[in-house]
Specification:
This protein is α+β, with helices and mostly antiparallel strands. It has 15 helices and 13 strands. Helix 10 crosses helix 12 and helix 12 runs antiparallel to helix 13.
Amino acid sequence: MDIKFNSSDGPSVGIEIECQLVDEADLSLVGKSEEIISGVFEGVTLSGGEFSIEELQSSLKHELLTSCVEINTKKSNTIAEAGEDLRKKFSIVIKEARKNNTRIALAGTHPFSKWKDQEVTRNPRYKRLLDELQMVATRFNIFGLHVHVGVKSGEGCIYVLNRLLQYMPHFLALSSNSPFWNDRDSGLKSYRTKVFETLPIAGLPFYFESWADFARLVKNYLQTKTIETTRELWWDLRPHPDFGTIEVRICDAPSTINEILAIASLVQALVVKFEKEFEAGIRFERPHSFIVRENKWRAARYGLEGEFINEKGEENVPVKKIIGELLEDLAPVATSLETSSYLDKIKDILVSSSGASRQRSIFNETSEKKEIVRKLADILEAEVNAVEGDG
């Protein structure tokens, strides 16, 4: 079986964000995905709307647990286009959720809802995964951000993957937004990361020599029934052959659409930079795997307040300094992509710190984890409503 990479023209962008469904009254996770998604589809069927039913069917997805809805953008040519699409879909989902006494919040974990209280979505694939993974699957009330960027070839995709690998801790530190788990402070900035790593094929991917090297591994996984489909390559970073993209999957769900777009713009800028270097035949030295793996732990533990080991493995450098220097390096790429304003928002995250720190600040001020959820839902609704008001 050949694994073909479907080429993408230009650095297209696709964003997938997993959203928490929380009860309007007590702010706990609530299993309303079926009611909300079917309600959106019914509304479009009855009265029409900006999106067709087909577009929404590909954009609103059930996840493993019924307390989550995934919102996907269309394949977009620019970050601005993806952002407009995402905001409109959030508006639709938020309004339908309100009809079901439910609100939408964004974070990597819910501060106090227990995993054992969640319901699994009725779906043959999820039933199979539950049978296979047992308690590992039932603990999966976590919420992430995935960013796809189009690349032209499979060989280019593998080159970009190898180059991007060392930046996975950077994305995790920027997006870290899951300090609480099962009604306890985990002590980490991203506890979601540790839950995700319990999956059998998860965490950081391998370095690959070529597209053939990657395809050979996937074939072996399939032949040995290690996986049923390439969708079960749950790595932090992976090629997506069907879409013709490289997909960054390590991020916690950020709290705002602006932060989502900022992180997506950083992913796109790095992919564009590395694809050009692939086409120019530029060779590079891979940092040792111990550096990337240690930096990932530090990102999960300390977020933006920590230090990373530098590329040579010789010294520790503040994370904010490393990311600030990266932004300076990518400035010409952002200019060419017309995404400088989005990339500048990364600087705002460096100043205000990550969502995890903000969650802890709310709890320290109020001593109520419910206030964290309320604030997250309020911020998202205000952001969406402000854009609608501008329109």
